[in-house]
Amino acid sequence: MMQFARDGRREKMSSKNISYIQAITDTMWSEMEIDETVFVLGQDCGRYGGVFKATAWRSEKDGKPDLSKKMYDEFGPLRVLDAPLAENAIIGGAIGAALSGYRPIAEIQFMDFIDCAMGHIVNQAGTISFKTNGSWCCPITIRTPYGGGIGGGMTHSQSNEAWFCHAGGLVVTAPSTPRDAAGLLRSCIRADDPCVYIEHKGLYRAITGDVPDDPNFTIELGKGKVVREGSDITLISYGAMLHKCLSVAEKLESEGASVEIIDPRTLWPMDEDLMINSACKTGRCVVVAESHAAYGFTSEVAARVQEGAFWNLLTPIRTIAGPDTPFPFEPGMEAAYLPSDDEIYNSCKRALGDG
Amino acid sequence: MNSKKINQKQKKSFGVDQQTAFEVLYHPLLKARLLDERMVKLFNQGRFGGTYFSGCGQEATNVGAGVHMVEGDILAPSHRQLGAMVARGITAKRVLAQVYSTAESPDGAQQHPCHFGDPELDIVSPTGHVAIQVVLAAGSAYAYLLDAYRKGDVKINWDKDGIVWAGNWTLKKGSKLNCAFAFFGDGATAKGDFHESVNFAGIHKLPVIYMAENNIWAESVHVTENVPVERLSDRAAAYGMPGVTVDGQNVFEVYHAVQEAVERARSGGGPTLVECLTYRYHGHSMIDPADYRTDEEVEKWKKRDPLIVFEQVAKEDGIWSDKLAKETEDRINNEIEEAIDWVEDESTKPKPDQFIDVTFRDPKFNDAIRKRWEKRKNV
Ligand SMILES: Cc1ncc(C[n+]2csc(CCOP(=O)(O)OP(=O)(O)O)c2C)c(N)n1
Ligand SMILES: [Mg+2]
Q: Which domains does chain A have, with CATH numbers?
């Protein structure tokens, strides 16, 4: 909880250093403690704790998982439901429960399989408010792991977030750090709008970070963040690619270029002004994502930034995205498929006019 | 079943008394019919746009189930459930406001005629996607189970190793659950959504009433081209729930069958699949000439019209009253005429013209969308 020092200034909040996936588990756990109407459903979520163990153990004081008790043991089988192998039942069921007063968190085991429940997500969840003229809401959170780089092959690696941004009526969030993972997830659970919350599976245990130890810590949906300030070029990215951008920025910095990095955090509705203002300031912009180029995140951001920052741009906006093909398995091809540090670096260099 | 029920079965009206018969069953039956036929006319006169899906012929099926709904029960309709909505208590004004897309429309005129609900009565506004609402009903029913669980009224029965519960629970004596009512056609049962819903509800013994309206046709596709078994209700066995087939033209029979199902569901006995044999008189929608079926088939079914069957059964069982029938009809006609005058007047007033403000619940998201909208409008 927040503490205040005698002089009225806020003392540094206590926080925990935890992994990205731990931040997700801890947040669900704490929300389930606070609000009885929050429950979890998904394949293997209960006894097994989820295939990635996202619905398994809460962290201890040292940030490590407390292996003595799973979420299932704590909250019982009805609130951590082992759902049948049926994506329509999971999402459609979550929607029905939401309409009857609950805040379900539905897990789709891999984002690749979310297409099975598309009608429910896009045309049911995404339209409840609209078609009741704002009198009903659909407070569901759909959690799902996305992204490549783990040898998952064609149907365990996809980044399909654009489908949902395109739908009109869904909030889509993509945290890139443990802190954002916690703050955004809590906001999604508490939001009255249906939220698609995508988790980069490559980050689950690859990164750790400080997360406030506060059961009410939220991050505003729809707001991006300048994760690194700079003045020569703007890099816009999220997920695993954001971390590549961060390391490229270090290299560019050592070569004398000042790089600003923006993490949109919420992909839809997007924080357009933040990106436009940054591009206006630096005059150069590179957008990076591993999802498909065609009609995707990079194209959308480039279009909006172009419109808003045109007269301040010094060089064309560049985009780096996954190729518009299915996702390959063979490790060499997978590595080639995903945008690399070198590609990001070269693109920035070209934007900076050096090569 | 106990002997009392068997005795009642000897009467085709299942022991329903005259007052109940007219107040509870005949009134919504006739109101759905008169309102429906009126809307067909109004559509053909060009009074409203889009298209219209008539439920004429299927009123008994809808009413016999809909009247069992109580406060808190969710109704998940498809596109032909005017009867169920009327039974639940929707007014002619609310229906017409929606169909005419006036400012008073329950859905703010966002949906086209016949894909509509009424949030005030817990009637879900369905998507145009056939069968999706069937899954939603299972989810609502799961919420009702959670409601009881949170109150401490649900006991979980673990297996002997203490590992699996698999929906094995018992409800405290005296505790009652809400029910979810799902309506869907024969065609919808070919969809995976149907299977996932009944499977889920079967596993967890959820309080869902599955109302399968077998009206022989799914647009132009015959039921035998959608369903490989003769009786839709036979499928229930595969999902661990009782399945019954009833005469969907006899409102008493539907009423009785659904009553049993509802009593079971509310007391923790799980879902039931109720197949109703019924028929739609008009084409699939107003633009469908329905030339895939024979006139003889239509005439055969019209001889067993729900209103005719009601009168026959009521007369046989001595509960018919010309006077009550006339009074009911007058009452309904008054409501409809008044509602039409009202809606015709309403429709001359400014129509709803905003849809952005209701896309998200959080106004700041709508603002984000509106920014671009205004840019487009103000060029
Ligand atoms: C997913 C989907 N596929 C196709 C359609 C087009 N469609 C609308 S109603 C219908 C037939 C439905 O038949 P049935 O379920 O028997 O209901 P009925 O119209 O007979 O009441 C079809 C194919 C649709 N609305 N949704
Ligand atoms: Mg049909």
A: 15-212 (3.40.50.970), 225-351 (3.40.50.920)
Which one-letter DSSP state was computed for residue B24? I
- How many CB atoms within 10 Å of residue A37? 19
Map out the domains of chain B as residue ranges. 3-348, 352-379
Query: Can you give the pLDDT at residue B375?
Result: 83
Q: Quick: pLDDT tens for B162-196.
A: 999 988 999 999 999 999 999 999 999 999 999 99
Question: Which pTM value belongs to this model?
Answer: 0.92
Q: List pLDDT tens digits, range A277-328.
A: 999 999 999 999 999 999 999 999 999 999 999 999 999 999 999 999 999 9
For the CA of B53, the closest atom of ligand 1 is 19
- Is A156 considered catalytic here? yes
> Does the beta carbon of B119 lie inside 6 Å of ligand 1?
no
Instruction: Work out the mean pLDDT of chain B and round it to a whole number.
Output: 94
DSSP 8-state symbol, A330:
S
CATH topology of domain B3-348: Rossmann fold (3.40.50)
Question: Which chain A residues are within 8 Å of B200, Cβ to Cβ?
Answer: 83-84, 86, 89, 93
Cα-to-centroid distance, B219 and ligand 1 (Å): 7
Contacts of B112 (CB under 8 A, 6+ apart): B50, B51
- The DSSP string of B159-197 is -TTSS--TT-EEEPTT-----EEEEEETGGGGSHHHHHH
Chain B residue with CA closest to A100: the answer is: B140
Whole-angstrom distance, CA of residue B114 vs CA of residue B124: 12
CA of B32 to the centre of ligand 1 (A): 21
A192-215 residue pLDDT tens: 999 999 999 999 999 999 999 999
Q: How confident is the model at residue B9 (pLDDT cuts 50, 70, 90)?
A: low
A8 part of contact set with chain B, CB < 8 Å: no
Does the CB of B75 have a partner CB in chain A at under 8 Å? no
Any ligand 1 atom below 6 A from CB of B281: no
Contact B75, B132 (CB under 8 A): no
Distance from Cα B305 to the centre of ligand 1, integer Å: 23
Indicate if ligand 1 lies below 6 Å from the C-beta of B185.
Answer: yes
